[in-house]
Amino acid sequence: MPQVNASGQPYEDDAPEPAAAPAAQASTDALDDLLDEIDGSLQTNAEQFVRSFVQKGGE
Amino acid sequence: MRIVGLETEYGIADPDRPGANPILMSSRLVSACRDALGGLTARWDYGGEDPLQDQRGMRRERRYATGDLLTDSPEYDEAARGVTLRRRRGSWEDPAHLNAVLPNGARFYVDHAHPEYSGPEVRSARDAVRWDAAGDVIALNAAQRYQEIEGERVALYKNNVDGKGASYGTHENYLIRRDLDFDALAVALIPHLVTRQIYTGSGRVGLGLHGETPGFQLSQRADYIETEVGLETTLRRPIVNTRDEPHALRKRWRRLHIIIGDANCLEVPTLLKLGTTSLILAAIEAGDERLEALELVEPVSDVRTVSRDLALTARLRLRSGEEATALEIQRALLEIGRTYAADAADAEVVARWEGVLDRLGRDVSEAAREVEWVAKLQLLGRMRSKNAGPGGEPLAWDDARLAAMDLQWSRLGDGLAWRLASAGAADRLTTDDEVAQAVAQAPTDTRARLRGASVVSRSDIVDAAGWSTVVLDRDTRHGNLEVVHLDDPHESTNALLDSLIGG
């Protein structure tokens, strides 16, 4: 079953290297792409993902 | 700068089995970490004896123990410096408390129901950032090995809340002089800890212990702080923690253990968190009287007030009778802290501190490249607009998509925070090469060098290691282990260990 947290890949593999001198526009485009990707994955199962994230207290 | 260290408890989950046992997963993760490092790790040295461990499975807290119970205390004494002998014991390890001392001098282990990375001792905020980032890489590598070994997935989160009431910590440690009056220190430090949230907060969707009230706040930890000063870390959590394990010469040093901070996925907040706090501690050590003017009337409730004040305009009551915003208090602290900058690394902290306060003061959104809660809030804001309702109203704060993004923000491997940095939208202080080096090697200017190098080059004779010990198992000692005491965290050389590691 696909999950919103399906990717186990390191971020280096699927995101571009940091730009040497990031132009504001380039950064905005990259964020738009990121938002589209998040939006697409969250439409289906965000609620289940959030509900199933249960931790025990720590420290 | 003084000796500092940073501990991170990661959230842990199996995406395919939401109910999976987190202690078992954490234990397997530490085991996988050892495996990923090819066995170049050591066990943790809990000391020669554990006199407070009750056979019935309970453990008496040290503060309730009478002196005759503390049979392990000579190991803390100055007279015991150097090398002492210890009776050899069995080598059984409790899987629920599995440990790995790493080549970079860090400790990776099971703490309660979480995997924890306790970074090595470092001497600058920038080094703290490097070895903290190294911890994320180490944890992620362990998770990948775990998946290969176990055939199951594991996801790790660098955050502090699950939104159902549980919180887990990111703790800072600062070496301070023993002769400071602790109560006076706490009073002087609290205004900084309450107000630094404006640039150290990592942002949280939801208000209240269970996130029951829709909204966004600056800090992950704010809602879990209940008292000003105290020993506990899991209930009645204090702004200033009084745990007194110096891991150093007790009569000279104290280890200040700060538990109020958020886990940070961006690097600038980590630099500022440790750098500014160290400078304020220097001001306290110097008895700087300017700090008195900043003392707060109600610091515990101010923690929440500041965390919920996205406009940075809330006024806090001072004991002097005046009122001030968190930003104004931070500006005053900057002027005090500036006086104590002792080297280039401190100067970098001061410059960043000043720049961030300026940008936050002009327009909060200008600090989005540096301040994690602002970056998170901006991304969430764009998602809210993108999914606006028919009347143009933004997505409501209680929509599960926003809570999901809050979690995805901090997930190791593909977390949104790191993807923003990769997209050039957040400042990085390290390079990938620097972090890779910090995965493999300990800092060279603290005792962590001796610990890390012993693990890497003499795993054949290292029985275990702790913060202030390296325990050697050499056949020449007729059934005894040799405990090498490293009571001064600043000392990066040791005659015996250097002769063994070829330093």
UniProtKB/TrEMBL annotation, chain A:
Belongs to the prokaryotic ubiquitin-like protein family. Residues 17-26 have a biased composition (Low complexity). Residues 1-29 are annotated as: Disordered. One of its GO terms (biological process) is protein pupylation. NCBIfam families: pupylate_cterm (TIGR03687). This is Prokaryotic ubiquitin-like protein Pup. Pathway: Protein degradation; proteasomal Pup-dependent pathway. InterPro entries: Ubiquitin-like_Pup. It comes from Demequina capsici. Pfam families: Pup.
From TrEMBL, chain B:
Keywords: Hydrolase. InterPro entries: Pup_deamidase, Pup_ligase/deamidase. One of its GO terms (molecular function) is peptidase activity. GO terms for biological process: modification-dependent protein catabolic process; proteasomal protein catabolic process; protein pupylation. The keyword Hydrolase applies. Pfam families: Pup_ligase. It comes from the Bacteria. Its EC number is 3.5.1.119. Belongs to the Pup ligase/Pup deamidase family. Pup deamidase subfamily. NCBIfam families: depupylase_Dop. This is Depupylase/deamidase Dop. It comes from Demequina capsici.
